[in-house]
C-alpha cells in the first residue's frame, strides 16, 4: 500500500454574505465553488473554507489569513455588486500587492452573454502574498460560467508565482501553459 506523503494543495474558498454569516440562509455559493474545483482539478487539493459578513475589514483579514495559511488560490464569492454593502473588490485591493484586472474584464464579458446586468459586477483579481485571489459572483450558476472562462489561465498564473503545480482534467477544462 502506497501513500502520498505530499500534503494537499490548499485552495481558499471565501463566501462573503451578511445573511449567510448570520445563519439566515444556507451558503450555496461556497459549496458551488468546491464542487466546480472537484470536477476540474485532478491534483491532490483541499479546501480551506471561510464565511464572513459584508465587512471590508473582515474580508481583507480573511483573504490575508488564507494566503498566510498557504493557499495558492483564493476564490471569493459575493459582494461584487453596486450596493453599499458590496465591498469585496475594495477588500481584495487592500489585501493584494498586485492587481490583475483582466480576470474581471473576461468574467463580465462572459456574463453579459447571459444577463445584461453583468455590467454592474465589479469582480477583480490580484496577488496577495503569492496567492492568486479571484472575486466571483454570488450565484452558483454564474460562478461556473465565470470559472470556465478564466480557469484555463489559473494554473499558469500560480506557476509564475512559484506556487504548486495545479493539474486539470483536459477533457473538462484544459489548463493553458505556454510551450
Amino acid at each position: 500500500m502506497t501513500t502520498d506523503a505530499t500534503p494537499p494543495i490548499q485552495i481558499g474558498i471565501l463566501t462573503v454574505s451578511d445573511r449567510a454569516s448570520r445563519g439566515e440562509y444556507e451558503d450555496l455559493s461556497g459549496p458551488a465553488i468546491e464542487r466546480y474545483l472537484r470536477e476540474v482539478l485532478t491534483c491532490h487539493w483541499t479546501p480551506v473554507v471561510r464565511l464572513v459578513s459584508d465587512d471590508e475589514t473582515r474580508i481583507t483579514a480573511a483573504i490575508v489569513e488564507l494566503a498566510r495559511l498557504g493557499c495558492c488560490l483564493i476564490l471569493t464569492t459575493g459582494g461584487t455588486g453596486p450596493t453599499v454593502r458590496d465591498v469585496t473588490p475594495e477588500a481584495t485591493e487592500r489585501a493584494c500587492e498586485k492587481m490583475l484586472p483582466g480576470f474581471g474584464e473576461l468574467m463580465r464579458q462572459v456574463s453579459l452573454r447571459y444577463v445584461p446586468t453583468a455590467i454592474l459586477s465589479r469582480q477583480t483579481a490580484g496577488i496577495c502574498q503569492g496567492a492568486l485571489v479571484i472575486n466571483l459572483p454570488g450565484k452558483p450558476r454564474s460562478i461556473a460560467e465565470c470559472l470556465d472562462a478564466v480557469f484555463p489561465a489559473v494554473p499558469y498564473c500560480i506557476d509564475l508565482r512559484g506556487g504548486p503545480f495545479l493539474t486539470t482534467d483536459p477533457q473538462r477544462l484544459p489548463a493553458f501553459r505556454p510551450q
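The helical segments are 18-21, 29-40, 56-68, 88-95, 102-111, 140-150, 154-160. The chain has seven helices and six strands.
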